[in-house]
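Priority: medium. Attachment 1 of 2:
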C-alpha cells in the first residue's frame, strides 16, 4: 500500500470492535477496483450496504499481510463503504497481541481513490459489546454479544498509530462465504432458566418443555430455513428451538426474524444432542452467543466470529417470534477435490467424509477443529497437509502454513504450541513435526524456495534438541519446565499433561526423585526431523552432519529401549528401567528405521495383531503406525485398509459427517471431544498413495 496510514478508533483494550466509514468516487464502474486492507485482528467490509469480504490470514506483527479484494456492487459516482475491525487485545492460540491498527486503500489501476489516515471517520461499534466479556473455548478468545438496538454513537476522526508493520500480499486464497446453509428445526418448545450469571451454565441447566409443531407453529411439518417466515407462539412463555444444519459445518451466525417485543436471544453452538439439547457449557468452555433483539425485524450476519457446529439451540425470551432464517452462512477455503475411484462403497464414503473433514478444518490456516480452538498445530497440520496434497493437488496453502509455523521460534529454539502464537507453551514433538512438514512440502511440490528461507530456523530448532544430548546420544524429555508439554498423543502415558500425569509404574518414584527420563517417541521424531533436515541440506547443496547424527540416535534407541522378553520397544527409560509399552512408540521407532531387521520384524508383527498388551494408537497417530507397517513390508497394506474400514467405518455407522478427534467421540476430554478434527482425515493419504 502506498499512502495508507495505520489508524484505529478511540477504543483499546481487549475484545475491541471498531467501525470505519468513508466514500470514494468511481468514474468507470466497469473498470477493476481493488480494496487493499490489513488489520491486526479481523475485519468485515461492506460496499454500498452489501457484504463484500471478511477474514484475514492469521499473521505475526513483524510479518503482516494485506488482502487485495476486487470491489463488487460499485456504481459510477459516489460509493460508500464501512469496515468493521476487531482485535482480541490479548495473546491467544491464534493471535499475537499488538497495537490495534487498520490500514486500507481503494485503487483503480494506478489511481488511489481512498486511503486511511487521521481524517477517516471511526467509532466504537454499537453493534458489538467490546471489553472483557465471557471467554469462549480456550482462555483468551471471546464470545460474541450483539446489540440490534439503534444506539446513538457518532463518528469521529481516527487515531494515528505509531506502528510500522511491514506488509506483503496474502500468501493464500481468501476464504469464500457461500450464504445461508439450509437447515431444519429438529425440536422446539418453551423454557425457563434459573438466575445463573454464567449464561452457558444457565442454558445447560434450563428447564425445557417440548411442544410439537402444531402446538407452537400451527403446522405439521418440521420448519425449514430459509423460509418465508415460520411463526412460533407460546402464550407468553419463552421459546426455544433446535436447528440442525444437516452435517458438521463452518460459518458465520446469521439470522432474520421478527420479535413481538424487545427480547434477548441466546444461541448455543454444538456438534451433537447427547444431552437432549446443545451442550452449551463444558468445564471452562462457553459455547453461547448473545443477541439483544428489538421489537420488529432483526436481520444480521456476524462476519467476525466464525464457528463450527452442526446444531444451534436458540433461546428467545419472548412469546412470539417469526423466523425466516436462523443458522450459519457457510464459509470455506476454495479448493478442487480429486476424486477417489473405487468400487468399495465403504471406502468411497470414508474418502468423501475425510475430504470434508479436511475442508472444515481449512480456513485462515489449517485448524485442529472448527468448533473449539480453530488453531494451527504442527502435528495436526502435517496430517492435513499430506492428505491435502492428494485430495486437492494444492501447495500454496501448505507453504503458507509451514512459513507461519517456523517463522517465529521461542528464545530457546523451540516452536510455539500453535502459530501465530506468543503464549509461553511448546510441544517438543510438534516442533520437530514442523521440520518434517517442510521436507514433505519440498518433496511433493518441488519448490525449494521456502526451504532456502527457513533453513536457518531448522538449524536453530534442531540445535535446541541436540544441545540436550545425554547418554548414548539420546535426548531426554523436557521435564521440570512448566512451559513445555511432553505430549505425543491422547493415550495413557503418552499425553503427560505438563508432567503432572506421571505413569503409575515402578519408575515413578525415581522420576519424582529427579531421574532423567528418555522418551523413545521424542528421539524417533528427532531422527525423522534430522533425516528431513539432511534431505533439505542436500537439496540446498549445503553441508551438514544431520544424517550421521540420526544414525547414531537410531543405534542408541535400539540398544536403550528394546525389551527382548516382550519383543518390542518401550516408550521410556530411566536409570535402566523400561516402562510404558504402546503402539505409538513402536510405530515411530519402526517408521524411523531404528532396530535391526529381526527387531523390526517382531515389532511389525505385533503391531498387526489385535488385542495385544500394547496400548492402542490413537486416530491421529495411526498415520505413523500404518506408514511404518507399509514401509516395512507392503504385505501389511491389506491390514491397514481393513483397520481403516473398522475404525472409520465405526464413526460413519455412528452418524459421523466429519471424523472425530478420538474414537471416544464427544465423550472424550470430560465431554469436550471434537467431532470434526483435521488430523483424523488420514484415510485420504493411504487410499490415494497406495490404492490407485
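Attachment 2 of 2:
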Amino acid at each position: 500500500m502506498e499512502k495508507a496510514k495505520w489508524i484505529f478508533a478511540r477504543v483499546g483494550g481487549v475484545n475491541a470492535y471498531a467501525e470505519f466509514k468513508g466514500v470514494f468516487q468511481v468514474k468507470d464502474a466497469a473498470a477493476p477496483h481493488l480494496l487493499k486492507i490489513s488489520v491486526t485482528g479481523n475485519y468485515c467490509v461492506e460496499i454500498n450496504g452489501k457484504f463484500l469480504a471478511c477474514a484475514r490470514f492469521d499473521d505475526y506483527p513483524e510479518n503482516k499481510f494485506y488482502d487485495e479484494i476486487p470491489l463488487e456492487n460499485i456504481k459510477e459516482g459516489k460509493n460508500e463503504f464501512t469496515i468493521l475491525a476487531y482485535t482480541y487485545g490479548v495473546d491467544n492460540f491464534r493471535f499475537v497481541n499488538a497495537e490495534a491498527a487498520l490500514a486500507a486503500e481503494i485503487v483503480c489501476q494506478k489511481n488511489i481513490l481512498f486511503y486511511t489516515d487521521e481524517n477517516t471517520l471511526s467509532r466504537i461499534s454499537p453493534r458489538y459489546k467490546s471489553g472483557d466479556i465471557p471467554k469462549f473455548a480456550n482462555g483468551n478468545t471471546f464470545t460474541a454479544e450483539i446489540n440490534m438496538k439503534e444506539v446513538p454513537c457518532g463518528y469521529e476522526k481516527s487515531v494515528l498509530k505509531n506502528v510500522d508493520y511491514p506488509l506483503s500480499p496474502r500468501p493464500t486464497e481468501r476464504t469464500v462465504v457461500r450464504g445461508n446453509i439450509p437447515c431444519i428445526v429438529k425440536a422446539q418448545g418453551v423454557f425457563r432458566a434459573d438466575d445463573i450469571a454464567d449464561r452457558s451454565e444457565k442454558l445447560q441447566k434450563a428447564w425445557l418443555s417440548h411442544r410439537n409443531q402444531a402446538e407452537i407453529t400451527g403446522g405439521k411439518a418440521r420448519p425449514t430455513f430459509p423460509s418465508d417466515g415460520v411463526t412460533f407462539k407460546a402464550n407468553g412463555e419463552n421459546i426455544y428451538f433446535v436447528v440442525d444444519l444437516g452435517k458438521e459445518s463452518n460459518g458465520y451466525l446469521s439470522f432474520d426474524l421478527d420479535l413481538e417485543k424487545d427480547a434477548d436471544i441466546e444461541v448455543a453452538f454444538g456438534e451433537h444432542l447427547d444431552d437432549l439439547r446443545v451442550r452449551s457449557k463444558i468445564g471452562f468452555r462457553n459455547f453461547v452467543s448473545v443477541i439483544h433483539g428489538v421489537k420488529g425485524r432483526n436481520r444480521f450476519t456476524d462476519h467476525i466470529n466464525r464457528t463450527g457446529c452442526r446444531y444451534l439451540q436458540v433461546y428467545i425470551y419472548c412469546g412470539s417470534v417469526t423466523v425466516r432464517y436462523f443458522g450459519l452462512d457457510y464459509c470455506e477455503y476454495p479448493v478442487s477435490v480429486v476424486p477417489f475411484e473405487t468400487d468399495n462403497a465403504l471406502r468411497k464414503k470414508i474418502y468423501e467424509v475425510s475430504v470434508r473433514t479436511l475442508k472444515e478444518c481449512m480456513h485462515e490456516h489449517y485448524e485442529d477443529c472448527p468448533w473449539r480452538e480453530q488453531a494451527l498445530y504442527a502435528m495436526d497440520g502435517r496430517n492435513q497437509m499430506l492428505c491435502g496434497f492428494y485430495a486437492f493437488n494444492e501447495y500454496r496453502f501448505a507453504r503458507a502454513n509451514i512459513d507461519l509455523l517456523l517463522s517465529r521460534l521461542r528464545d530457546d529454539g523451540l516452536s510455539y504450541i500453535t502459530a501465530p502464537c506468543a503464549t509461553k507453551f511448546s510441544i517438543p514433538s510438534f516442533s520437530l513435526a514442523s521440520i518434517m512438514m517442510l521436507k514433505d512440502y519440498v518433496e511433493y511440490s518441488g519448490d525449494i524456495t521456502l526451504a532456502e528461507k527457513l533453513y536457518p530456523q531448522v538449524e536453530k530448532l534442531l540445535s535446541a534438541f541436540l544441545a540436550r544430548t545425554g547418554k548414548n546420544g539420546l535426548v531426554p524429555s523436557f521435564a521440570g519446565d512448566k512451559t513445555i508439554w511432553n505430549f505425543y498423543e491422547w493415550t495413557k502415558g503418552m499425553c503427560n499433561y505438563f508432567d503432572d500425569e506421571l505413569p503409575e509404574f515402578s519408575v515413578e518414584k525415581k522420576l519424582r526423585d529427579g531421574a532423567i527420563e528418555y522418551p523413545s517417541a521424542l528421539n524417533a521424531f528427532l531422527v525423522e526431523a534430522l533425516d528431513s533436515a539432511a534431505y533439505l541440506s542436500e537439496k540446498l547443496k549445503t553441508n551438514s552432519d544431520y544424517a550421521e547424527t540420526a544414525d547414531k540416535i537410531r543405534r542408541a534407541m535400539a540398544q536403550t529401549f528394546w525389551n527382548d522378553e516382550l519383543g518390542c520397544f518401550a516408550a521410556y527409560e530411566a536409570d535402566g528401567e523400561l516402562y510404558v509399552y504402546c503402539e505409538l512408540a513402536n510405530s515411530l521407532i519402526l517408521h524411523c528405521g531404528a532396530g535391526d531387521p529381526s527387531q523390526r520384524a517382531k515389532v511389525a508383527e505385533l503391531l498387526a495383531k489385535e488385542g495385544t498388551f500394547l496400548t492402542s494408537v490413537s486416530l491421529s497417530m495411526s498415520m505413523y503406525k500404518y506408514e511404518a507397517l507399509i514401509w516395512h513390508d507392503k504385505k501389511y497394506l491389506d491390514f491397514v485398509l481393513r483397520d481403516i474400514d473398522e475404525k472409520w467405518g465405526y464413526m460413519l455407522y455412528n452418524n459421523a459427517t466429519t471424523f472425530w478427534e478420538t474414537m471416544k467421540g464427544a465423550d472424550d476430554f470430560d465431554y469436550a471431544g471434537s467431532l470434526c478434527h483435521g488430523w483424523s482425515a488420514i484415510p485420504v493419504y493411504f487410499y490415494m498413495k497406495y490404492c490407485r
